[in-house]
């Protein structure tokens, strides 16, 4: 998505894509990790309730 936004839609050169990618990779990775840690136990509990007889 970052490649499409920076190079295709904005028409920026390739180094701009690298700066945009590395500038947003770590914050987005951390955010997704935190969200996953919140929802994994909820999903496991729901799956456990759905699979029990």
Please describe what this structure looks like:
There is one protein chain. With 53 residues, this protein is mainly alpha-helical. 87% of the residues lie in helices and 0% in strands. The longest helix is centred in the middle third of the chain and has 38 residues, at 14-51. The radius of gyration is 18 Å and the shape is elongated.
Task: Give a brief outline of the structure.
The protein has two helices and no strands.
Tell me the total number of β-strands.
Answer: 0
- Spatial extent as radius of gyration: 18 Å
On the 0 to 100 scale, the average pLDDT is: 86
Q: Helix and strand succession?
A: HH
Given helix and strand content, the structural type is mainly alpha
């Amino acid at each position: 998505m970052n490649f499409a936004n920076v190079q295709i839609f904005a028409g920026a050169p390739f180094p701009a894509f690298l700066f945009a990618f590395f500038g947003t990779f770590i914050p987005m990775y951390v955010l997704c990790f935190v969200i996953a840690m919140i929802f994994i136990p909820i999903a496991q509990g729901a799956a456990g309730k759905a699979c029990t007889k």
